[in-house]
Amino acid sequence: MDTNTNFTLAIEDLTVSFDGFKAVDALNFYLDKNELHVVIGPNGAGKTTVLDLICGKTKSTEGSIKFLNKELTKMAEHEIVRAGVGRKFQTPSIYENLSVLENLEISYPYGRGVYGSLTFKRNKTVLDKIHEIAKQIMLDDALDTEAGLLSHGQKQWLEIGMLLIQDPQLLMLDEPVAGMSVKEREQTAELLNKISEGRSVLVIEHDMEFVERIADKVTVLHQGKILATGDMETVQNDPKVIEVYLGH
Ligand SMILES: Nc1ncnc2c1ncn2[C@@H]1O[C@H](COP(=O)(O)OP(=O)(O)OP(=O)(O)O)[C@@H](O)[C@H]1O
């Protein structure tokens, strides 16, 4: 695709083969600003691989991934992060022996890495931002708490906060509510709805009740291809989707 688009993310003809097996097969996928899009589908459908391709962890065999009209397929992982793509993996990668505040501070986009960040003086701009994010992720009362002492759900929120502080235009989350309590799921739904304002959010999720709560759009992936895409109701009532995924 050589022309510019208004989409935050425009994926065209994206294919990746692992020893001849196409885990993602000629995928076309578009994401708007302010859109929270959930990808669902059976195990092995290619969901994680799509996120791996976007963040540069896996290189495509063919096709194009344009993020804000920048071609990502030729960029290194750290360049993609700097361009404004944040990704949260299933297991949180927080620093357990640092406080919530320090975890957020380390992620602030000045200097990179633990030593780079901590040698900077805390200034008001940074602290204001940390407080703003902490409030958003419901950890403003826990700023001095050691991250290792947080609940499972709070750890997930902290990691989301560590991405938000970098203000990504695209945020990708892999099964964000796995292992969370009912209450934490509700709070996470609210959080995700809020953070999709002004940016694009791409979520992989299996919990259909949660998907229904958050999704502006849903795409069902099956054998590396799109089986259906649209709003939740359309997708849920699609006979092909019921057959390969929801009916089980
Ligand atoms: N690096 C790799 N090398 C070889 N095969 C791979 C690689 N990564 C993924 N695959 C294969 O590609 C297919 C899609 O995997 P993927 O993890 O993307 O599925 P998924 O939809 O995320 O599944 P799940 O819901 O189980 O996480 C699987 O058959 C998987 O074994």
From TrEMBL:
Q: Which keywords does this Swiss-Prot/TrEMBL entry list? A: ATP-binding, Nucleotide-binding, Transport
SUPFAM superfamilies reported in the protein's UniProt record:
P-loop containing nucleoside triphosphate hydrolases
**Highest taxon of source:** Bacteria
Question: Do you know which InterPro entries this protein is assigned to?
Answer: AAA+_ATPase, ABC_AA/LPS_Transport, ABC_transporter-like_ATP-bd, ABC_transptr_urea_ATP-bd_UrtD, BCA_ABC_TP_C, P-loop_NTPase
Q: Example GO molecular function term?
A: ATP binding
Listed under GO cellular component are: plasma membrane
| Positions of the ABC transporter domain | 9-248
Among its keywords, does the record have Transport? yes
Q: Name it.
A: Urea ABC transporter ATP-binding protein UrtD
